[in-house]
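Dig into what follows:

_____
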Amino acid sequence: MRIATWNVNSIRARVGRVTDWLQRADVDVLAMQEIKCRDDQFPHEAFEAAGYEVATHGLSQWNGVGFASRIGLEDVENDFPGMPGFGKPLADGSLPLEARAMAVTVGEGVRLWSLYVPNGRELDNPHYPYKLAWLATLAGVAQAWLAEHEGEPLAMMGDWNIAPTDADVWDPAVFEGATHVSAPERAAFQRFEALGLADVVRPLVPTGYTYWDYKQLRFPRNEGMRIDFVLGSPGFQDLVTGASIERNERKGDAPSDHVPVVVDIDAESALDDDRPMIF
């Protein structure tokens, strides 16, 4: 099974690029972030013509997550319990929830999350504590799931908007005093790793960025960041057979500022635990 995550930065602007790449790259399941459309605005027909079923969670022209799969989508879940909101309070005093998280099950019990972690904007911006609270709540949800589903494959995929080490940015000095590299953000990322969720791509692809700003010729100069990750549970890690960062998808006409991150897993191995042992 080949799965991928991609911040597409407006699916309506890039539907042709995405569906073409899905077929060329032979991808079974794609987690998308920043689709930037409501569910009824998503270009379902193009994906269906390419052989993919789609589930989306989009509320407006901002944010939005989804999945495209040619092997089915089950147990679809939008948001997560206790997920913090952001923005102008609603009539009941609560904060509106943004479309930033969706979970599905594919294949034989492989649980996948598409995550678009809040940006944080600036260290003194209200979006920054929102980001930290969002991550802390998600970590609690992940911890509970792992305890309840011990040994089962889980991958938390998407745009994490965190560069967890200095090696994940082209020049750490440029980011001094900025979001994405601050100690609290990196600690939030490390909490997921402490739960046993490992970056399954880094061991196989030790270098390379996943995001380059459109400004200041960042891509031609390879001034990028690695902020898109696939964090897998032990049960998922055992299935991984390959990985890649699709840098070439940042080239050409009207690319997203992110590129796909791909992971290959041996889905058949997920069934092995229930087979009788033969000595």
Summary: Helices lie at 11-24, 44-49, 127-148, 183-194, 234-237. DSSP finds five helices and twelve strands in the chain. Residues 243 and 263 are 4 Å apart (CA to CA). Residues 127-148 form the longest helix (22 residues).
